[in-house]
Amino acid sequence: MNTRLQVEHPVTEMVTGLDLVEQQFRVGENRKLDMLQSDIALKGHALEARIYAEDPGNCFFPDSGTICHFKTPAPGECVRIESGFKENDQISLFYDSMIAKLVVHAKDREGCLALMSQALKETEIVGLKNNVSFLQCLLSIKEYSEGNFTTGLVESSENEWRQQLQPTFDCLLHAVVYYYICNHPDNNDWCLIPESPNPWLTLTNFTTSGYQTLNFALLLNNETLNCSIQQTENEFKGAIKKGKQIHAFQNVKIIHAKNNHLVLVNNGVQTRSKIFLKPPYITIFHSDKQHSLKIPIIQNKLKEENSHVQKALHSPLTGKVTTIRYKEGDRVHKGNIVFVIEAMKMEHAVKAPFDCTLTKIHCVQNQVVLSDVKMADVDPCNLKV
Q1: Chain mean position to CA 265
Q2: Which string of b and e fits 144-170 if b means at least 16 CB within 10 Å?
Q3: How many other CB atoms sit within 10 Å of the CB of residue 94?
Q4: What confidence tens digit (pLDDT) does each residue in 107-136 have?
C-alpha cells in the first residue's frame, strides 16, 4: 500500500472534514484513528487546481525565475490555498514547477465550478509564465463543465482553449497605451493631465510641426505586433497590426493610470486593466485573463530577426544544457538534435529546422540558459533566399 499523501488530498479533506495529515501522525505515534469508516460522510463537491509555472502556449514547457507579484483569493471555509512561495521567491529549474494548489468546496459541481472560476480570476502571478488563464479556459469547455471528459481533453479541445487565450483588441490597446505612458516623462501623473497639456512638459512627443508618432513592436507568442500611437491633445490615435489585420483607433482617452491600474475610454466604452512591466514582459490582466507581451525591440533589429530565413537556434525554455552533439563548423541535417536541455526532471531537444552549418555555438555543456536565448548561429545550406 502506498501510504503517502497525494497532491489531491485537500479534495478529500474538503468533502469529509478530516485532517489526513493529523491522522497520519496518529498512526506514526501508534495511536488509533479517532473515527470509524462508518463515521465518514461525504458532503458537497470539491475541486483542486494546480497552478504551475509553465507555458500552455508553448507545449506546457516549465518556466523558472522570480515571482515578482503574487496575489491569491482570500482563504475561507470554501476556498483553500496551499503554496510554499511568496513574492520575490525563486522558482528553480531543478524542481517541480508547481506554485500553488487552489481548492474550493461547494454543495454541488455547478457551484464548485463557479467558485473555482472566481478564485482563478482573483489569482495574479507576474514574472513567470503560468497556467492560471489556461485553467479558466478549461472550466468553460462544455465537456469539462458537464463532467463528460477523458484524459484527452486538453488535446481534443486545443483549438478552443487556444482561441480563448488570445488577447482581444481592447487588451492590446491597453498594452500600447501603457507602453506609451512608460516612455513618457510624466507617466506618474497621467490622471492629472489637463485637457490642454503644456507641450513643454511633453517634449518627447511634441515638435513644432505637431505631435510625433511612437512606433514600436510587441511580441505575442513569437508573433510580431507592429504598433503606432500618437497623442493629440488629451486623446490618442494609432494602429495595431497583427498579421494581415490592422486595428485602427482614435479618440482614446486615459481616465486613470495609477498603481498599475489603467482605465481607458474607446468609442464611448470604458474598460479597465491591471498592468505590470517586468522586463522582458508586459503582463496584462484584462477581462479576467492574463496575457504576456514581450517588450519592444528596435525596428531594424526586428526586421533582421523576422527575415524569412532563420539564422540562429534559440532555447525553447530555461534549463541546463546537458548535451551538445555537434561542434562549430559541423553540417547538421534537418531534424537532427543539436542540443538537449534538462528542466524540471525532463529533457527537451533543440533540433535543426533545416540543413545548416553551425557557425558559432554560444553555450557550453552544463550551462544554464534562459528561455529564448541564442544557443548557436547557423548558416542555411542550399536554401533559396
Answers
A1: 26
A2: bbeeebeeeeeeebeeebeebbebeeb
A3: 12
A4: 999 999 999 999 999 999 999 999 999 999
Please report, to the nearest 10 degrees, the dihedral formed by the alpha carbons of residues 314, 317, 319, 323 taken in order: -50
Distance (Å, rounded) from C-alpha 131 to C-alpha 5? 24
Cell of 122: 482573483
Amino acid at 126: V
Q: Please, are residues 79 and 48 in contact by the beta-carbon 8 Å criterion?
A: no
CA 303/CA 384 separation, integer angstroms: 19
Instruction: Please say if the pLDDT value at position 201 is more than 60.
Output: no
Name the amino acid, one letter, at 204.
Answer: T
**What's the angle, vertex CA 245, arms to CA 239 and CA 250, rounded to 5?**
25
What is d(CA 340, CA 95) in angstroms, rounded to the nearest whole number?
Answer: 18
User: What's the rounded Cα separation, in Å, for the pair 291 and 172?
Assistant: 9
pLDDT tens-digit series, residues 319-358: 899 999 999 999 999 999 999 999 877 888 999 989 999 9
The C-alpha cell of 315 is what? Answer: 532555447
CA distances from 345 to 97, 235, 240 (A): 10, 51, 40
CA separation for the pair 203, 16 (Å, rounded) = 65
- 206-219 per-position pLDDT tens digit: 555 556 788 888 98
